[in-house]
Design brief:
By secondary structure, this protein is an alpha/beta fold. The radius of gyration is 16 Å and the shape is globular. The N and C termini lie far apart (41 Å). It is built from 7 helices and 5 strands, in the order ααβαβααβαβαβ. The protein has one domain: P-loop containing nucleotide triphosphate hydrolases (Rossmann fold), CATH 3.40.50. Helices cover 36% and strands 14% of the residues. Strand 3, helix 6 and strand 4 form a beta-alpha-beta unit. Helix 5 packs across helix 6.
């Protein structure tokens, strides 16, 4: 696959459903969850996780960065590069100057991740969402989990992160998941009633 097409596809959010399929009950659940810094939505394939978040963003008119996680993101340099493209797509009038991966910081260092996410967040107007879709694609020991913890901690007031996954709370985010700063939407919450 052409690298340019792959980079762009990682930033494309799913189309949101028509108003006939919007789930106001789940939008209300997200309204409650949005007071938390991190929202984890888990459920089986086809449960409507991504559609729920896409329709929520559209109906609430929220600025957002949508990022499709895949196994290539286990390489942090690849993630930082592609996430920067997604961030610039989300805010085209305020192009962020991303910290240089060859700077004095290793891309695996917490200091680099902190600086990287601070740079991105300063270009977004709150309230905003950072959506990481298909998070289950990462292996449990992927270094990206640590960077995502930093990304979550660096969110400014009004910034929120949504992790969409077929699995529950990733083990490496377990400490965050036990915090009162996390809302978890379980598969049963997604069922049609």
């Amino acid at each position: 696959m052409n690298a340019d097409i792959r980079e762009i596809s990682k930033a494309i959010r799913p189309p949101h459903a028509s108003s006939n399929f919007q789930r106001s009950d789940l939008h209300n659940l997200l309204d409650e969850a949005i007071s938390r810094r991190l929202i984890i939505i888990s459920g089986p394939p086809g449960a409507g996780k991504s559609t729920l978040v896409a329709t929520y963003i559209a109906t609430r008119n929220l600025p957002s960065i949508w990022y499709q996680v895949d196994n290539d993101d286990k390489d942090l340099a690849t993630f930082f590069h592609n996430f920067g493209i997604a961030a610039n797509e989300a805010v085209p009038h305020k192009k962020a100057s991303m910290p240089d991966l060859r700077s004095e910081f290793s891309q695996e260092s917490p200091a680099f991740a902190k600086r990287y996410f601070q740079e991105i967040y300063q270009h977004l107007e709150a309230p905003f969402l950072v959506v990481l879709d298909d998070y289950q694609e990462l292996e449990d020991d992927a270094a990206l989990h640590d960077a995502i913890c930093i990304a979550c901690k660096e969110l400014p007031p009004g910034g929120r992160m949504v992790i969409i996954s077929r699995k529950g709370c990733p083990p490496t985010l377990a400490l965050l998941c036990t915090s009162d700063k996390v809302a978890i939407i379980e598969p049963d919450d997604l069922l049609l009633s």
